Queue: 2 jobs
Job 1
Amino acid sequence: MSKNEEIEEIEELEETTEEAVEEISVEETLKQELSEMEDKFLRAQAEIVNMRNRHNKEREDSAKYRAQNLAKDLLTALDNLDRALEIETNDEHGESMKKGIEMVREGMLHAFKEAGVEEIDSLGQTFDPNKHQAVQTIPLSEGQESDEIVQVLQKGYILHDRILRPAMVIVAQ
Amino acid sequence: MSKNEEIEEIEELEETTEEAVEEISVEETLKQELSEMEDKFLRAQAEIVNMRNRHNKEREDSAKYRAQNLAKDLLTALDNLDRALEIETNDEHGESMKKGIEMVREGMLHAFKEAGVEEIDSLGQTFDPNKHQAVQTIPLSEGQESDEIVQVLQKGYILHDRILRPAMVIVAQ
């Protein structure tokens, strides 16, 4: 082999190696890009599943507590109905008005119930700071349990598991 | 070149071609897979944007019409309040009860307004089949416009742009 031929052979060998390296490198790069893209796709897919779950939960909550604002704003009106029913009447007109008020009250409570709102059970119950607000305590009389609610000053209301307004009560201690 | 040498050369050439084809094929396959994966990723990304927009719209609508069910269920109670206020009173008790009822009515209408519910403007307005239900027509009198609402038998209510209940009216024609 001449010197020149040797050089040529070496050069050829080098070229082949470079080509091979280049080919492997292109393949490797593609493989890596594919792997990265797959990763991005899988993360996007996971995000879609998360969003769907989050939104379903939100939709459920939103439906469950839908009545919250309006119901809360109507509690004063309901209090006033209760108060109007306490007024004594002594004639026919007053009686028929009272019947009308009673119908309104029943209608409101029915609509409230449909929306998930109910009065908090208070009188005779054990005081529960989550549902009741004690505005006064009186000494325990005979036959009363400790922490028993003996008077309700203002009714409380609950929407499913959310307190719209705690009941204002007097507790025996 | 001997016959054998020639065959060897041809075989070598074939092998090289096969390898080249194989390498191109691997590269091409990878490129195609990458392009497909990229496509899947972009579609997932677009789906995320769509979901977000859809849910924002849904959330807005849900907030806007949140009061719909409860408000609709309370219309009868409101009608009964109106009716109770029409009863004549002739004593103190009746008067104070009436004041109580008036307060309840104001309170309900205020809560309704906060929730986006308002009475449909009817008396003296031109009949609109989207908001009013004509239960009777009477001949046009002097000074009345054609299709003018001359009496409201039952009030109608609207929640933003949604009719909760059309007004029941008598129309002059």
Job 2
Amino acid sequence: MENKVSVGLLGLGVVGSGVIKLIENHQEKLAHQLGCSVQVKSVLVRDLEKNRDVNTNEIVLTTNPDDVLNDPEIDIVVEVMGGIDEAKQHILKAFSAKKHVVSANKDLVALHGPELQDAANRNKCDFYYEASVAGGIPILRGIVDGLSSDHIQKLMGIVNGTTNYILTQMDSEGVSYEDALKEAQELGFAESDPSSDVDGLDAARKMAILGRLAFSTAVDLEDVEVTGIRGIELEDLQYGDKLGYTMKLIGYANFDNHELEVNVQPTLLSKSHPLASVKNEFNAVYVYGEAVGETMFYGPGAGSLPTATAIVSDVISAIKNLRLGVTGNQFIEPHFKKELKTPDKRRGQYYVRLYAKDEAGVFSTISTLFHEREISFKRILQTPDKKHELAEIIFITHETSLENFRNALEKLKDLDVVLEVKSYYKVEGDAVT
Amino acid sequence: MENKVSVGLLGLGVVGSGVIKLIENHQEKLAHQLGCSVQVKSVLVRDLEKNRDVNTNEIVLTTNPDDVLNDPEIDIVVEVMGGIDEAKQHILKAFSAKKHVVSANKDLVALHGPELQDAANRNKCDFYYEASVAGGIPILRGIVDGLSSDHIQKLMGIVNGTTNYILTQMDSEGVSYEDALKEAQELGFAESDPSSDVDGLDAARKMAILGRLAFSTAVDLEDVEVTGIRGIELEDLQYGDKLGYTMKLIGYANFDNHELEVNVQPTLLSKSHPLASVKNEFNAVYVYGEAVGETMFYGPGAGSLPTATAIVSDVISAIKNLRLGVTGNQFIEPHFKKELKTPDKRRGQYYVRLYAKDEAGVFSTISTLFHEREISFKRILQTPDKKHELAEIIFITHETSLENFRNALEKLKDLDVVLEVKSYYKVEGDAVT
């Protein structure tokens, strides 16, 4: 057996540099675990002249992808270039050349994961992508191996660090969404165009990947219903806080009787929920298994070295398989058929904030409308705003179907006494009293 | 390849019953993952006549261990009988018969894990024991596979549900240690003889196992310094709370430059620490890796079905290896040499509560004594108790060596003005302000 395994990288940004550093710094542990040394042989870059913050003296930098993909010495290709089409073509080519692939590319895996997995299987290659979800947290392994014996019923994830940072700052500092976003941009937690984070698209991609592995079914990106946090109002966080809840952008997925529900939306989470204490840029995934009950995996969702640990752990898994002669044995194809859950089967509690006329009988009119749809209230807050002669009413419903709630909400807007429905959010768990 | 794998059980208590239920209920998922069915063929029991809460119609119950250990049809033996000597002999016999073993027995693995691993390696057998630490949480996989690429520097665990339940109740209900223990016993969270839990021995066993895997070094049970929570006073929890800390029984381990520190002790944990929100009977393990930074694995630490999920996940891993022909390839032997860290190298912050004479200059005498040993104070609380003409003084030090702290504590007791040192605890993290 060879005593050295060569790795090729596609891309040399912050994560790629982290991979090189980690492999260089952990030679002793790698040799102990694998019985061989691991070497980064060549790296595909866009610009050969660019200054790198990592030592590349013994590494071939190249602008020709074939130098990596067609090099017979390279057994494992690590894709950290990002983007969709080019990365996909490179990975497919790597599989054709019988190379194992580790990718950190959530956009690509969310969109084309099943097709890539298929190509891997056909070529008896390994395809790992732990780093594509929740950076340094070994959550895909947790689901695929650690909970392999259980029936996972529900996933809830804080899988986007930018939005969690913004919501945490709004909550703890009492600042507006706009100010918190600006601060996040200054600190480098948010991009100058923050759309993919704040509109929930990034979280949606991760939920599609998580759902596929947790439920062994073909979750497509378009199955994920998405609402972001753009323009969320501080008042709703503050009322939530008063009622025992904290606002988080939650990726939610459940699967039972072949019926699937996956969405990403701002959610008022009971302060006693394990996810409620996940602050700032940290990520966590809460997994509810039929037998195991509540588990949670917590850690950094991004960053050069945390993401690199997930990638190198995947490289180690692939090398172990390679040395044992058992590559290409992933049992993670979609297996169960799926249907999207219709709104009458989607259950939830809801928070509503509205302005109504400040007159007798208003609340009774509103509550009758909800009761007629079999929705009862769990908590109510009513504050008269004397200056404007209106009342601000906040209530949280008991659990109901999404269909009934949507229906009640429509009718609510038509009521004469209701001036404006300011906001409504899903609620998870019971408030701490 | 066979299309059925047979499993034998040693023991049929609550966990054994959970294993049978889980395997029975998950036949479809197992077949999908493994390409074969899994069957519990026979079970070693003490009493053939006992009523079981699980269907054993198609299972052979026997009082003769050889019916399991010498049955050539059985490939995998699951040890859930508990105890040390008998269980150990059975497991060694299983390895000699080339059977793979899954054990949930933390006492046995903590005491004789390396010897058993050795026997497994000699016979090219798999030996898995995920369920021995933190029940349903896949923490051993998290460390061995998920963070395989990283250098783990520090572990902190809430790995005993009984003591966490007692401390949570004291904290939230304001009850004494004795009352909380009594309640835990009534609810079945504590045994009638609670020694092994409240004195920290159970947690120590789990820390020895965790330390071995995290640091790839031979952590022995006697390396673990243990202080339990027996007789802990509500006052210390309340003062801690006032200062921004919550009391937890923390298993702590760190390893650097081949120097090891492992202990279990009640610790005042900053409320902002991820472990601080782990309540009641839940367990969690916090892992600090050089590259990944902070991660945490949270879930149920005990219970029939959660523990059974860990066991069956191990069975699945062993069957995958079996079908791929790669059993006995665990790379988890102790590799690095170790020395125990001496007290001058063990760093920490400390909380002290004492009674002193209520007279001028007392606090200055005390603080001078600490400053002479290069220990400064971070927080101070002083309450005069007029009735008894004494002062209750509480302080938290900045980080110092254990040697300096012990030395100062000794001298403190000799001071004329100090009437009694009531308590002292290790402190982790910075208080939430």
